[in-house]
Amino acid sequence: MATETLITADKGEFRAALPEGGALMGLDLGTKTIGTAFCDAGWRFASPGKTLPRAKFGADRQKLAGLVRERSVAGIVIGLPLNMDGSEGPRAQASRAYARNLSALGLPILLWDERWSTAGAERDLIGQDMSRAKRAERIDSAAAAVILQGAIDALAGGVV
After folding, report:
1. Number of neighbouring beta carbons within 10 Å of residue 49
2. In a domain, 2, yes or no
3. What is the pLDDT of residues 86-107, one digit of tens each?
4. How far apart are CA 67 and CA 112, in angstroms?
5. β-strand pairing of 33-39 with 46-53
């Protein structure tokens, strides 16, 4: 195991850290919940996972570590909430800090631009004719799946 866990916004660096591919976990970090999503080892399809209530970081890490073991996750993709002009504000800095804390799991971490992920997820859930109450329960994990799908599409197909 490397002495320092890779945390990057560069898909090439992340991909190089996973030369054999491997299942990935996507995270949409909210203030009250963490949406999770998972993809197959071939990086074809991302699917929503559980929405976890946020707690103290140690408890969050323990829950996420359990999901990593259960799903044989090789890397983590965390949504990076950039401003519309591409700059980073306090929420992006908080996501970077969360990634640094999560690096204790020893997995490479990709920070992925999550602009429009929640809007895309909401549109998809409305398209499924899901009630507002059900959408509220599932939006964070659906957004995590949108984030993860964007990342795996770029990783697998060379999209920037």
Report:
1. 20
2. no
3. 788 888 899 999 999 999 999 9
4. 20
5. antiparallel
* SS3 category, 64: helix
Q: Tabulate helix, strand, coil % of the chain (nearest 5).
A: 45, 25, 30
Identify whether 81 is part of a domain: yes
Helix (H) / strand (E) element for 27: namely strand 23-29
How many structural domains compose the chain?
1
Q: Is 146 part of a structural domain of the chain? A: yes
Full DSSP string of 94-120: HHHHHHHHHGGG---EEEEE-TTHHHH
DSSP-derived pairing of the beta strands 73-80 and 109-113: parallel
pLDDT tens track for 2-22 = 457 899 999 999 999 987 878
Residue 147 has a CB neighbour count (10 Å cut-off) of 28
CA distance 2 to 31: 31
